[in-house]
Q: What sequence folds into this?
């Protein structure tokens, strides 16, 4: 099966969150050795991910390796250690992310803007750079998937930093795909749209309701409906639908794809 991950070493950032956890389960079920990373403060989330991976595949090898993706030196030392102790990750899911504040651009906090860019863009850059260096050193190819967002494709109202950061992830993905193709390393992105259930969906609906705009009402139930009516398929995506697409891109099933951005949005743009 081209989607088998037997013999592959997967690294997932944001592995204590909703999408990271679901992707970890799919990778473990497909036979990969799975390294999950997140902030030290996300220990409970990482423990839950370990538990559900082992339920999905009792033989799964799941390692926790927390670090902050914005800390370049920690990323370098962590990827070095992972590569020498466990093996060089050859299926990397750069998924850690932060939505930032919700506000019209005239009211955005510049410090929050920088924080969002640091986590969502510099974090992805750090991982792509360090993981690709290790793959090149090991003389093996691999596949990298970066999590962008439909906010980076169409621009989400009240989400200037987040939308800009996710557009940057798409641009970074396209450049990395070109630069790393000679080394046999494929780099693609996924852009989820409205994905529910999950912490990010709940936070987004609540904060859009609290932020005055012409686009959304001020109560959560109406905002949910307003979001769903933007989707031609008239429903949000599921975490499993995101994970299936990520597994496809990480596996050899997508062996001729690099530099693409898969939109997982039920037809929304
Ligand atoms: P989530 O909040 O459940 O998970 C995000 C994870 O990233 C958290 O566990 C968090 O601790 C971790 N993280 C944040 N800052 C970090 C840092 N500096 N270093 C390491 N880890 C850090 O959200 P999710 O829904 O699982 O989102 C995962 C990714 O998908 C994000 O990049 C997000 O922007 C993107 N996304 C989500 C949706 C959605 O609707 N859920 C839609 C589009 C894109």
A:
């Amino acid at each position: 099966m081209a989607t088998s991950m037997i013999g592959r070493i997967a690294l997932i950032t944001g592995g204590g969150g909703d999408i990271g956890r679901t992707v970890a389960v799919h990778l473990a079920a497909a036979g990969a050795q799975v390294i999950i990373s997140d902030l030290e403060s996300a220990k409970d989330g990482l423990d839950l991910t370990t538990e559900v991976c082992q339920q999905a595949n009792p033989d799964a090898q799941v390692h926790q390796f927390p670090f902050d993706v914005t800390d370049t030196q920690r990323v370098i030392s962590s990827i070095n250690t992972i590569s020498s102790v466990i093996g060089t990750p050859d299926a990397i899911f750069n998924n850690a992310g932060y939505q930032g504040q919700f506000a019209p651009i005239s009211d955005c906090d510049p410090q929050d803007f920088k924080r969002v860019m640091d986590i969502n863009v510099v974090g992805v850059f750090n991982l792509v750079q360090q993981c690709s260096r290790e793959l090149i050193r090991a003389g093996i190819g691999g596949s990298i998937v970066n999590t962008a967002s439909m906010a980076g494709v169409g621009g989400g109202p009240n989400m200037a930093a987040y939308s800009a950061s996710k557009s940057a992830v798409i641009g970074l993905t396209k450049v990395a795909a070109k630069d790393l193709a000679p080394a046999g390393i494929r780099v693609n992105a996924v852009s989820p749209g409205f994905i529910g259930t999950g912490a990010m969906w709940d936070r987004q609906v609540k904060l859009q309701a609290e932020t005055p705009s012409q686009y959304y009402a001020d109560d959560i139930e109406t905002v949910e409906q307003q979001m769903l009516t933007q989707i031609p398929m008239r429903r949000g995506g599921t975490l499993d639908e995101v994970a299936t697409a990520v597994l496809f891109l990480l596996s050899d099933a997508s062996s001729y794809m690099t530099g693409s951005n898969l939109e997982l949005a039920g037809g929304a743009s």
User: Anything to note?
Assistant: The radius of gyration is 18 Å. The first helix runs from residue 18 to 29.
